Amino acid sequence: MVIRRRARRFLIPLVLYGISAAVAAYFVHHAHSGARGFEAREQYEAQAGELRKELEAVKTERVDWDRRIALLRSDQIDRDLLEERARVVLGRVHRNDLVIILGQGEVKP
């Protein structure tokens, strides 16, 4: 009987501490590597950085296009742009131009 009391006195707290440690370990593990954990946050931040770089590239490209469109829309059209568009639309070249024919699939802007 005395042995059972001693065993209960040590085993019950030991089991409770073990269960609480397991629950705490479960939450710590998921806080670190879960779907919303620290590792996922680092991945989201890396992805956000890549998207910011892409956004900056697209913004600069848009500024370039806006500038070119403004040259075409102004009261006095830029002659170089007009000539370039006319050549593209008509499929003509100037006699002093150098034409380089690329193979299929090789397109240079």
Write structural notes for this entry.
The chain is mostly helical and 109 residues long. It folds into 2 domains: 33 residues; 64 residues, no CATH class. 73% of the residues lie in helices and 0% in strands. It has 3 helices and no strands. The protein starts with a helix and ends in a 19-residue tail after the last helix. The model has no long low-confidence stretch (mean pLDDT 84).
Quick gist of this model?
The protein is mostly helical and 109 residues long. Helices cover 73% and strands 0% of the residues.
Number of domains: 2
Q: What portion of residues is helical?
A: over 70%
Mean pLDDT: 84
Largest sheet entry: none
| Terminal-residue CA separation | 92 Å
User: How many runs of DSSP E, i.e. beta strands?
Assistant: 0
What fraction strand? under 5%
- Which ranges are low-confidence, i.e. pLDDT below 50, for 5 or more consecutive residues? none
Which shape, going by the Cα principal axes?
A: rod-shaped
In terms of structural class, how would the helical and strand content be classed? mainly alpha
How many H/I helices?
A: 3
Query: Can you write the helix and strand succession as a string?
Result: HHH
